UniProtKB/TrEMBL annotation:
This is Integrase catalytic domain-containing protein. PANTHER family: GAG-LIKE PROTEIN (PTHR47331:SF1), PHD-TYPE DOMAIN-CONTAINING PROTEIN (PTHR47331). InterPro entries: RNaseH-like_sf, RNaseH_sf. It comes from the Eukaryota. GO terms for molecular function: nucleic acid binding.
Amino acid sequence: MLAWIFPFYNKLRKIASDSSKTLSVSELEKAEISLMILIQKESFKDVNDDKLKKLRPIIDCNGLIRAKTNISNRDDTNDFKFPIILPSDHTVVKLLIMNAHNDLLHAGPLYLRNGPKAYIVLYTCAVYRAIHLELITSLTTEVFLQSLRRFIARRGRPTTIYSDNGTNFKGAERLLHALDWDGILSKAAEEKIQ
């Protein structure tokens, strides 16, 4: 909607613009940048806002506040090296995230032919960028731990595991706290697992 406002505004001001019935990529990008700037102005005082200090904020040529990451010397796009900082609790940001999840089919379960729901656990290797997919039928802690056992049985024991802290991982963490960690850690050290 915002992308249509700019051509209309230009037409009212009699600024030369394309009177096409479709929007161009540059018009859509301009509207997106303007929306991001509005969200940032609503949410942050400026680049020196206390909420942003840990992100090492910088301002780009469009006036957007971006995070200066540790991969800034990498040969990649500026959008990847310097992501735009947006507040996670803003209504428009939540809608943008939901739209991206729906477009990329992240949201919700898969439905099998005979009707039951299924989910996919994604394991990725940080070194080789290999992926391993496990099909599971529920998001319970027990089912996740079974998935992790199958992953280890097929691919071997990882030295370190990081998670996105989903609820099933938190449940797994609670169950794992009840274990004899001294015995597990000594066995893990023997197997060279951190």
